[in-house]
């Protein structure tokens, strides 16, 4: 099913990446993976995703740095970002939020709760996208009506001028 949400999972530990990707796939998501921040950026340009789930602690580019980079990219700025961190790193969670993460998941976590949080973020993103589409459609209708009103005013002015003549 192509309407299943696609999640990009970024995790430098290959075993953890494999387990998380498999479990998310089993939960009904399409899953793309990357093992680094630069790999995640490349993957984001290759295939559209509905949500990014990344480890905060990664070599070369942290999850917070990845979030900041994504937020600075116009076409990716609204992508929901969830970062995973250990309970012993509350400062990194604060930095993640400051960088633009939408949510920070503390390890260890219950997988069912993670899935519920992912589903909620994606539902919210899709609702916002629908509102934006509805707004664009309404704006187009307003412009169309304004043009019609302008044309009717011109016709009325012409009819009044003919009536006076």
Automatic annotation (TrEMBL):
Keyword line: DNA-binding, Phosphoprotein, Transcription, Transcription regulation, Two-component regulatory system
Every Response regulatory domain range: 6-122
GO molecular function, one term: transcription cis-regulatory region binding
Cellular component per GO, a single term: cytosol
The keyword Transcription belongs to this UniProt entry's keyword annotation: yes
GO biological process: regulation of DNA-templated transcription
Keyword rRNA-binding applies: no
Positions of transmembrane segments: none
The protein's name: Response regulator
């Amino acid at each position: 099913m192509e309407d299943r949400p696609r999640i990009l999972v970024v995790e430098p530990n290959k075993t953890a990446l494999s387990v998380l990707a498999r479990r998310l796939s089993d939960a009904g998501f399409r899953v793309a993976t990357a093992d680094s921040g630069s790999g995640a950026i490349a993957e984001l340009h290759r295939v559209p995703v509905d949500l990014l789930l990344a480890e905060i602690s990664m070599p070369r580019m942290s999850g917070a740095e990845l979030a900041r980079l994504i937020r600075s990219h116009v076409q990716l700025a609204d992508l929901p970002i969830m970062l995973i961190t250990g309970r012993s790193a509350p400062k990194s969670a604060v930095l993640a939020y400051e960088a633009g993460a939408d949510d920070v998941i503390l390890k260890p976590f219950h997988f069912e709760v993670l899935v519920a949080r992912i589903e909620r973020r994606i539902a919210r993103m899709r609702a916002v996208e629908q509102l934006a589409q509805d707004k664009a459609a309404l704006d187009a209708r307003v412009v169309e009506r304004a043009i019609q009103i302008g044309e009717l005013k011109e016709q009325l002015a012409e009819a009044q001028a003919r009536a006076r003549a």
